Amino acid sequence: MNTVMTVCGPIPSEEMGLTSMHDHILADLSFFNEPITEEVRRGCPIDLNSTVQLKDLSYLRNGLAAYNADNWNLTDADLMMQEVQHFKERGGNSILEPSAPGIRCGTDKLRLISERTGVHIIASTGFYREETWPARFTGMGPGDVQSYLLSEINDGIDGTEVKAGHIKTAIANGSEREFDVLKAVVPVANETGLLVTAHTSGATTVENRRKLLRTFLQEGMNPEKLLLCHIQFTFVNQDVRTFLHEPELCKLDLNWAKEVLDTGANVCVDLFGYPSDNDMLDRFGQADTVKLSGLVELIKAGYAEQLVIGNDVYQKIMTRTFGGHGYCRIVDYAIPGLIAGGIDQEAIDQITVSNPARLLQFQLNTDRS
Q1: d(Cα 171, Cα 182) in Å, to the nearest integer?
Q2: pLDDT over threshold 70, residue 347
């Protein structure tokens, strides 16, 4: 039987339904919080030490969110349960929760949220950006990494009965240790059949992106079980100065996405509903229309079988409760946008239902059930 491991146990993959393939539910993302320098304080019209408030929302959305500690706190289970319930009410059925050790929290509460909302949630093991690693991770060799991952997959996460149904990896600074972890993950992925999601960001160099993909493939990773998230960061150059002086360089560019897809790997177009411009970094926000445009072009180019989508809610200001779209943006905007872009329902169902179910399934080992 083709099975997906959820926080409530294994389910047949055909029960997944409409799935967001990248959304944080319970996470402590405080490592993102930037220190408030005197320069920032002088030019700041709001109290960055306060909780997130509606009157400050426009300032937070334009770059100051990075300096507000409360913005990075997604640990309120009752609040996030409401957010997941909104997703269910709008037609959503499953969420891949990619929070790895170092940022994830409340795994037992994820199960409660799933039980009460009826939304299937897949929890993650793995290694996120190196600066988030718990202290015990820093001295791990390849064997230790593999033993740790298998314990969370086979026995449960943090002493709970919740078993990981997905492996998260990341490259941030491109250190040797980050790439060593990628190599150690591959045998575990191949043994268990679990999907591996690989994180890069807009700040990741072209060299490191290519090295990440090359490392996985050279180590024998099945590309059909590899998913590169945040691919939209490579669609358009978002530097304000480049746009002002050389706007022709800010056109849609799908070369990297196609390079990944041509290896047989998969990509996730996410951050639908992400806050807008970042004035502090001289970067303009990537409109959801750009993400949608890239997605439409990739579908028309024949890559529908390798595409998934997500919202990537990872800031408090992205939740509905605090003025964002929450987990509903892919339902309320991305899917209708695909229809408006001439994409047929079969392809939409493939991206939102069939592909997630296939990617997250594995052959059930009765010892894990």
Answers
A1: 9
A2: yes
